[in-house]
Amino acid sequence: MIRDITLGQYYAGESVIHRLDPRIKIIGTILFIAELFIVHDFIGFAFCGAALAIIVGVSKVPPAFILRGLKPILLIIIFTFCLNIFMVDGRVIWQWGFLKITVEGLYTAAFMGLRLVLLIIGSSLLTLTTKPISLTDAIERLLRPLNRIGVPTHEIAMMMSIALRFIPTLLEETDKIMKAQQARGADFESGNILSRAKSLIPILVPLFVSAFRIAQDLAMAMEARCYRGGKGRTRMHEMKFAGRDVAAMITLGVFLVVIILERIYL
């Protein structure tokens, strides 16, 4: 399951989505998340799902690779689904003691579950199609106006990028630690959920030690390269808007209008 987490990973490619300006992709991701919360029925989700399917197809990232990222949060999706089924009042279709399933509960559970799935897939596409260094530059450029009030935008962007970049690294370290402990007789599979959670506690100490070691190595590497923050720093590749970026921005605006109109009139 550790290997199934795709958040923070980059899938190399030369598609139109990969070549879009990272600022457009960040803005598009934020708009898509906002649209998921604007939508109030399954018709709106159909529009969002169709748009997301088109983007996945254009990006040429294998759908199986994207869907694999849902496995680690499957428990959260199931928990959200069950919570809405049993906790929403309405027309009762089944009841046993204090537990009851209502028509409104089923509708809300399906609605919230679908929203969560689309949210995860849409957010994953940002990191899957954008290199970490490009993501850092884009976040810094978008936050640049805050420099006027003393906000260290370069440092904030760098921290966010490093956090995303090292998610796969820490997951790989976790996998190595689990395999090493399994070779010594540790059991992470048997027992109920509580016992499985307890069995993961011994993993945390070596994982934290490994994380601090990686952070120290990164700090030493940055210092050896004379890194002194963003002041006066230049870039090898300056970001510039191309025709495809303008077209993507117009498409994002049109789709936002469509979602708003769908909520108002349908």
Automatic annotation (TrEMBL):
<dbReference type="InterPro" id="IPR024919">
    <property type="entry name" value="EcfT"/>
</dbReference>
<keyword id="KW-1133">Transmembrane helix</keyword>
<feature type="transmembrane region" description="Helical">
    <location>
        <begin position="241"/>
        <end position="261"/>
    </location>
</feature>
<dbReference type="GO" id="GO:0022857">
    <property type="term" value="F:transmembrane transporter activity"/>
</dbReference>
<dbReference type="Pfam" id="PF02361">
    <property type="entry name" value="CbiQ"/>
</dbReference>
<comment type="subunit">
    <text>Forms a stable energy-coupling factor (ECF) transporter complex composed of 2 membrane-embedded substrate-binding proteins (S component), 2 ATP-binding proteins (A component) and 2 transmembrane proteins (T component).</text>
</comment>
<feature type="transmembrane region" description="Helical">
    <location>
        <begin position="73"/>
        <end position="94"/>
    </location>
</feature>
<protein>
    <recommendedName>
        <fullName>Energy-coupling factor transporter transmembrane protein EcfT</fullName>
    </recommendedName>
</protein>
<keyword id="KW-1003">Cell membrane</keyword>
<dbReference type="InterPro" id="IPR051611">
    <property type="entry name" value="ECF_transporter_component"/>
</dbReference>
<feature type="transmembrane region" description="Helical">
    <location>
        <begin position="106"/>
        <end position="128"/>
    </location>
</feature>
<keyword id="KW-0812">Transmembrane</keyword>
<comment type="similarity">
    <text>Belongs to the energy-coupling factor EcfT family.</text>
</comment>
<dbReference type="InterPro" id="IPR003339">
    <property type="entry name" value="ABC/ECF_trnsptr_transmembrane"/>
</dbReference>
<dbReference type="GO" id="GO:0005886">
    <property type="term" value="C:plasma membrane"/>
</dbReference>
<feature type="transmembrane region" description="Helical">
    <location>
        <begin position="42"/>
        <end position="61"/>
    </location>
</feature>
<keyword id="KW-0813">Transport</keyword>
<comment type="function">
    <text>Transmembrane (T) component of an energy-coupling factor (ECF) ABC-transporter complex. Unlike classic ABC transporters this ECF transporter provides the energy necessary to transport a number of different substrates.</text>
</comment>
<keyword id="KW-0472">Membrane</keyword>
